[in-house]
């Protein structure tokens, strides 16, 4: 099923796979991932998520891995700071623009 990019344009599965392969092969994926990890840590996002998981585990008996994963995943994706999303998106766009110029 085709995906939509942040502008609402349709990106085919094949194109998505090609982009992902280029990012991996060039090493850009790792650079962007490290930047994302650093920005999330600096923003306190990782600490908040860790605290949420600990509190959830304290309240849950018996602990359900499925429920923990669902709750933490939902919170994690919904609470990524907008500035971090924007920075990572800009970095990916910059890389793609540089690839299109070649």
From TrEMBL:
It holds the Pfam family EnY2. Keywords: Activator, Chromatin regulator, Cytoplasm, mRNA transport, Nucleus, Protein transport, Transcription, Transcription regulation, Translocation, Transport. It is found in: Nucleus, Nucleoplasm; Cytoplasm, P-body. InterPro entries: TF_ENY2 (IPR018783), TF_EnY2_sf (IPR038212). It comes from the Eukaryota. Component of the nuclear pore complex (NPC)-associated TREX-2 complex (transcription and export complex 2), composed of at least SUS1, SAC3, THP1, SEM1, and CDC31. TREX-2 contains 2 SUS1 chains. The TREX-2 complex interacts with the nucleoporin NUP1. Component of the 1.8 MDa SAGA transcription coactivator-HAT complex. SAGA is built of 5 distinct domains with specialized functions. Within the SAGA complex, SUS1, SGF11, SGF73 and UBP8 form an additional subcomplex of SAGA called the DUB module (deubiquitination module). Interacts directly with THP1, SAC3, SGF11, and with the RNA polymerase II. Involved in mRNA export coupled transcription activation by association with both the TREX-2 and the SAGA complexes. At the promoters, SAGA is required for recruitment of the basal transcription machinery. It influences RNA polymerase II transcriptional activity through different activities such as TBP interaction and promoter selectivity, interaction with transcription activators, and chromatin modification through histone acetylation and deubiquitination. Belongs to the ENY2 family. This is Transcription and mRNA export factor SUS1. It comes from Somion occarium. The lineage of its organism: Eukaryota, Fungi, Dikarya, Basidiomycota, Agaricomycotina. The gene is SUS1.
């Amino acid at each position: 099923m085709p995906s939509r990019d942040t502008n609402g344009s349709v990106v085919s599965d094949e194109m998505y796979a090609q982009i992902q392969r280029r990012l991996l092969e060039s090493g850009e994926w790792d650079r962007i991932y490290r930047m994302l990890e650093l920005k999330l840590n600096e923003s306190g996002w990782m600490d908040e998520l860790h605290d949420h998981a600990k509190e959830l585990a304290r309240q849950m008996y018996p602990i359900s891995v499925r429920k923990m994963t669902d709750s933490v995943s939902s919170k994690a994706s919904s609470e990524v700071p907008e500035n971090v999303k924007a920075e990572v998106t800009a970095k990916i766009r910059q890389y793609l623009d540089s690839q299109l110029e070649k």
